[in-house]
Amino acid sequence: MSHTHYLTDAQADAFGRELDAIRDEIKASLGESDAAYIRRMIRIQRGLDIGGRALLFAGVLPPAWLAGTAMLSIAKILENMEVGHNVMHAQWDWMKDPKIHSTTWEWDTACPSDQWKHSHNYMHHTYTNVVGMDRDVGYGILRMSPQQPWRPWNLGQPVYNALLAGLFQYGVALHDVEFERVLDGKKTWRDAWARLKAIGRKTGRQTLKDYVLFPLLAGPFFLYVFSGNLVANFVRNLWAYTIIFCGHFPSGSHTFSAASVENESRGRWYLRQLLGSCNIKGGKVFHILSGNLSHQIEHHLFPDLPSNRYAEIAPRVQALCEQYGLPYNTGSLARQFGTTTWRVLRLSLPGGHSLEPRLA
Questions:
Q1: What are phi and psi of 330, to 5 degrees?
Q2: Are the beta carbons of 69 and 231 closer than 8 angstroms?
Q3: Alpha-carbon distance 178 to 107, whole Å?
Q4: What is the pLDDT of residues 292-319, one digit of tens each?
Q5: Alpha carbon distance, N-terminus to C-terminus of the chain
Q6: Cα–Cα distance for residue pair 153/347, rounded to 1 Å
Q7: How confident is the model at residue 1 (pLDDT cuts 50, 70, 90)?
Q8: Which among 10, 95, 255, 355 is least buried, having the fewest CB atoms inside 10 angstroms?
């Protein structure tokens, strides 16, 4: 089913103008309270990081190890989700603060920021859920749309999915290498090698920091600090995977063919972002820990608006969807994750076209 069937061209244009008006209004209202928000998030994240690492130095005491690991896990989640991801989306560039700017921020994960900004900011946000163009559709290893041809190796998809979740930062890091394009002759090994070397340098620094330097500073408590860092990175990986996959693959989400986005108008681009994105219900703390990607619909409509504004925008977007008779995919974390997992399992087998949304 093509997403063009939801609205006529005139309706799509009108829908786009209404969303443009929301964006312009929010842009014009940005001010000191927004700047204070991101600075506060950075202070909280760094405080949790320092506190967690300090407690791990006393990790021989089980309560200290548990508290330190929990604090470090939350610090890494905040840095990746609410701070790094959103800063690198240029959400805070309007502040003109060189320390909180999309061109200068390097985040605490294996993927170099410049590669992530290409694979995510450009490829994913331009071609959201377009099979063959948006590499987030399966990250090159999973069949996440019935439009993707089934191959016998897809039978192992539940295993690949579990590995991707636990090692998510490395899956993201390798994303922009595009091995399948290299094997198809569409990209040179020289280009892939240059990207791999950059990933190797970044991964080496991350590994040195978390698994060598900080554990060595703990002296005889090396293993407690090492294990705390290992668990914190694993928790961050699982959380990031869960939020990101629940943002695009639950029941009711759409995937698209390359042909369906040819000569796409701005209004239809907005419509595709809406139909290919899904929200997750939750409280304020949950939204912050998700990087406000629990408001994935609003993020994809307005990727460069500050994340702290998405909760304010969401009711207006939902009302607009009701006005135009459009679906607004939102649900609990259990619902979104459960149906996403079902998609992974079902599409490991041939077929799966019943997963595609149908017009009422």
A1: -140, 150
A2: yes
A3: 21
A4: 999 999 999 999 999 999 999 999 999 9
A5: 12
A6: 12
A7: very low
A8: 10
What does pTM read for this prediction?
0.94
Q: Which residue has the tokens 């590499």?
A: 135
Backbone region of residue 279 per phi and psi (left: phi > 0; alpha: psi in -120 to 50; beta: other values): beta
Name the helix (H) or strand (E) containing 288.
helix 284-289
d(CA 171, CA 173): 5
CA torsion, ordered 278, 283, 284, 289, to nearest 10 deg: -60
- Count other C-beta atoms under 10 Å from residue 236's C-beta: 24
Residue 186 reports pLDDT greater than 90: no
Q: Phi/psi at 130 (nearest 5 deg)?
A: -90, 115
CB 154 within 8 A of CB 347: yes
Rg (CA), the chain: 21
Q: What is the DSSP letter of 188?
A: -
